[in-house]
Amino acid sequence: MDAQAHVDLVNEFSAHNYAPLPAVISKAEGVWVEDVEGRRFMDFLAAYSAVNFGHSNAELMQVAREQLERVTLTSRAFITDQLGPFCKELAELCNMETVLPMNTGAEAVETAIKTARRWGYQIKGVQADKAKIIVCDQNFHGRTTTVISFSTDPDCRKDFGPFTPGFEVVPYGDIEALKNAIDDNTVGFLVEPIQGEAGIIVPPDGYLQEVRQACTDSNILFIADEIQSGLGRTGKTFACDHENVKPDIYILGKALGAGIMPVSAVVSSRAIMDVFTPGSHGSTFGGNPLACTIGRKVIEILGKGEIQDHTTQLAGYLFDRLRAYKWDKVTTIRGRGLWVGIELDRVSAGKAKPYCLRLMEEGLLCKDTHEYSIRLAPPLIITKEEIDWALERLDKVLR
Ligand SMILES: *Cc1c(COP(=O)(O)O)cnc(C)c1O
Predict the structure, then answer these.
(1) Is the peptide bond before 162 cis (omega within 30 degrees of 0)?
(2) Residue 327 Cα, ligand 1 centroid: separation in angstroms?
(3) Which residues belong to the active site?
């Protein structure tokens, strides 16, 4: 089947909950993917950071393959030889004490919400069913019914009500708004240290430190959703590291499974995590040995720090070059690490999607976000030469 036949098949038989670019990929290696007709593209999205270590990464594939031959799933009714080491190693990477493994990001966010609510009732002493969690405008934390209950994007919510109560939205990056929203029933502040889906929005310098202080002062949990910003993307293990801040709860996903398996986790202290007792939460697949093995290799790679340094180095180069072009159609270039939002001028350029289509025709795969931004997030293993290749295409399309 050629590419068009695949596009038609997807249009006919798949739900229309996505509007993908018509690149029909059949294999991938490193930063490159290949379509069914043998055309090669550079992947400048990396599955929204799930493929941080590149496609078909040899080390990761090797441990996955070996585990596939041994045991892949037992459920949490039993313990496998991968679970303990995974939890220990992830807790250590996070400088925390305990791990609750799940599968997708949204499930880990749900888990963190349940953690904060129970902590509120059982430890802080909030009155039954009154717990409030503060979240930010333009947030993205996943797609479950509870998580979209506090989305501010109308497309995510329309006709999916009734919604889960117990959330209050404040503007992102505004510390006074957060402080004003905190009351006696507040149990936590759930925030992306850098907003991904909103268009790679970096908060003002010092914001995360102020958030840490405000949460400590008011005895509420600082819950950092590092599903997209974490695990090397910004040049540090966590985006919170840029401000030397440690949240009470990390929510991790995406790159933790290296694009091989969905692997997510909530990581916190023993005191907080002990709100969970047998039967109070769980997942058939969470903490399965295949996921744990892959996660352990990801943790090992991050533990060396080389990929973070490489990311920082190349990010400096990428931002310097991007800013030097001074494209008329572009109003802002923002981001951190190998994570870039290119904001187009609404009048002279218009929406981002047609530019992503043209970039695809030039061999570069990236994604529009919030209509007027082009999001760049290549695998972190990318080389300088590969970045040069991508920049040539970007210049051709944006000039
Ligand atoms: C992708 C993402 C999620 C949801 O993860 P899924 O695996 O798609 O459920 C949650 N939070 C952030 C910040 C994300 O980027």
Answers:
(1) yes
(2) 31
(3) 140, 225, 254
Which structure tokens are listed for 187?
Answer: 């149990």
Residue 212 C-beta-side C-alpha neighbours within 13 Å: 14
Q: What is the pLDDT of residue 250?
A: 99
Rounded to whole angstroms, how far apart are CA atoms 208 and 214? 10
Question: Domains in the chain and their CATH numbers?
Answer: 3-56+306-398 (3.90.1150.10), 59-304 (3.40.640.10)
Query: Mind listing the pLDDT tens digit for each residue in 63-121?
Result: 999 999 999 999 999 999 999 999 999 999 999 999 999 999 999 999 999 999 999 99
Closest residue to atom 6 of ligand 1, CA basis: 105
Ligand 1 atom nearest to 253, measured from its CA: 7
Pocket of ligand 1 (CB under 6 A): 48, 104-106, 109, 140-142, 192, 196, 225, 227-228, 253-254
pTM of the model: 0.98
Ligand 1 centroid – CA 105 distance (Å):
4
Phi–psi pair at 133, nearest 5 degrees: -115, 130
Across the chain, mean pLDDT equals 98
| Top mutation candidate among 113, 141, 144, 200 for ligand 1, by most atoms within 8 Å of CB | 141
Q: Sorting pLDDT into bands at 50, 70 and 90, what band is 370?
A: confident
CA gap 26, 24 in Å, rounded: 7
